[in-house]
Amino acid sequence: MASIRQAALEDAAAILDIYSHYILNTAITYEYEVPSLEEFRERMSSTMIRYPYLVIEEEGKILGYAYAGYFKMRAAYDWACELTIYLAPNARHGGLGKRLYHALEHELVRMGMCNLYACIAYPKVEDQYLTCNSADFHRHLGFTLCGRFHDCAYKFDTWYDMVWMEKVVGNHGAVAPLIPYPELRATADFSAL
């Protein structure tokens, strides 16, 4: 059975291998070129300073990863974050993404997060590079559509849209300071997820 754990910088090559498939073969990400391993490690490191970065693996092989990041880099947005998830192509549609997202959401709630956002590539018409699967996945997990940008990205000779989806997970009453994830990392328990 697959297990969830915190990512380490030593996982960067395996994680980048998953991500590179989506860069080169899909419009799921609007990135054109695969970043270097050094650049990708730096991206991971800068995320881990504040937010959770998780992997799901089976028999030591990483099958997917998910992390949170800044929604906007202003103090007033501290209780909102953007989520990212990618699974190895052969690991999709088996429930691993749902488990990984639930674990990520659990950790974000422990931090004191209130709003989760997903920025999703979206086709006007599904094609070989982009379907509505990601938006459907997020909808299934309780996210709702909160914005759409038309023809804002160009990849594979096609103009694509982008949608924002939102999930409220926290109380918008009295505000407590957000707890940076490194302060919670040691008490994370993914065994039940």
Mean pLDDT value: 95
Helix content: 25-40%
Sheet/helix structural class: alpha+beta
- Strand order, main sheet: write it out: 1-2-3-4-5-7-6
Roughly what fraction of the amino acids lie in strands?
A: 25-35%
Structure, explained:
The chain has 193 residues and is of the alpha+beta class. The protein has helices at residues 12-25, 37-48, 96-111, 133-140; strands at 3-6, 53-58, 61-70, 80-87, 115-122, 144-155, 158-168. β6 and β7 form a beta hairpin. The protein is globular.
In short:
By secondary structure, this protein is an alpha+beta fold. Helices cover 26% and strands 31% of the residues.
Question: What's the helix and strand layout?
Answer:
Blueprint (H helix, E strand, L loop, with lengths): L2 E4 L5 H14 L11 H12 L4 E6 L2 E10 L9 E8 L8 H16 L3 E8 L10 H8 L3 E12 L2 E11 L25
Parallel strand pairs: 4-5
Antiparallel strand pairs: 1-2, 2-3, 3-4, 5-7, 6-7
